Amino acid sequence: MMKIEITVNGAKRVFDVEPQTLLLNLLRDEMDLTGTKYGCGIGECGACTVLLDGDAVLACMVLAVDADDRKVDTIEGLAEGGKLHPIQEAYLDEGAVQCGYCTPGFIMATKALLDENPKPTEQEIREYLNGNICRCTGYVNIVKAVQTAAARMKGQG
Amino acid sequence: MTMYVNRHNTHILLGFEYHAPASVAEAVKLLDNYGSEAKVLAGGTDLIVKMKDGSVRPKHVVNLKWIPGLSGIRERRDGVWIGALTKLRDIERSELVQKRLPVLYEAVRMIGSVQIRNLATLGGNICNASPAADGPVALLALDAKAHITGPSGERTVDLDSFFTGPGRTILSQGEILTGVTVPRSAAGGYGCFLRVARVSMDIATISLAASAKLKGGTVEDCRLAWGTVAPTPMRTREVEEFLRGKRLDEKVISDAAELASKSIQPRERGRSSGPYKRKVAYGFTIEALTRIAGSVRRNR
Fold this sequence. Notes:
The complex is a heterodimer of chains A (157) and B (300). Chain A is an alpha+beta fold. Chain A has five helices and five strands.
């Protein structure tokens, strides 16, 4: 067992973990943060996307020990004081959610995109999100949602 | 022992002993001690998948990620150095790479997804030694040198001699790749990266990295490197020789393409057939050289 200290959604937490524990398992099984989904497990679907020190990464491929001393942000940390984040609002308003399984991953990838590039073109949105798969095939509305979120946020994070 | 590969397990990792060395010397010592029982972890995007399905079962995992000094991109006296632990995403975003190593920029941004590139390292992309990997193909077109540290000290080799087969490299027990250098002579040219893949996240079916320097309209220096046309990434030196000193007109370009389609060494079967790859190689050579000729005209 190894002791790690990670900041999850702004709160510092200490855990004893086995070296083979994946960040995804730590979030879901130890912290009950089940918004982050287990999809393919081999880095192709993006359902487990979280932000690690602000960068979009796949929680199914990161050892928990590699998150030691770092910041992890998950879908649960986006809403503030019971109010949805503008990206979440935009996904709802544009009907960008069908079964919803891919949505947390898409939203976290969108967050990373808009943090980097507050006014992405449609091409930039499609390229940035190409690691997230929606098997209900709702991509048109997802792209619209990102554009709507970008317009509403006007680069204010 | 028969190895049971469970493609359905993508969720659980088997246990292993974990090591996080704080220096290259410490990493070398650990790897030398444990030999074939140890695997190197960098970005993890290849290793973790193989460990989940059980096709790789290391007793020891040596995580290089916490070793300082192995990541970064710097212009040095001998060329552009890129540390082995540099994330692909950092290479893609580097102005130095965009300006001086355009073919590497184009190759790296095609790899996986943003999420993968935020984890995966250049060293991992190289040492995994897939004949389909995009990074090594671009680096071959840039005449890159590989820096290796091991139990008996440091050595630098041509990246072209680094690969010995699919998944195999010249690294011997205890050795790690610490970085690569693109020599001054190869940096700063025109570059172009082309590939065929079924979908964006897929690995390449065939790829071409071309880099060239031209003087007064004639080819001074040119390198063509290919992915997935042989057991390792390879260069087609006879095509490079043919192009040297010539003007990139239509005839020269199509002769070069003809030569390239004969020079590659694809398997006749596999994810796509040999004859198919030779046709694509012909088309890719035309496209790459036409683009290079075009960018020269634009910049004049």
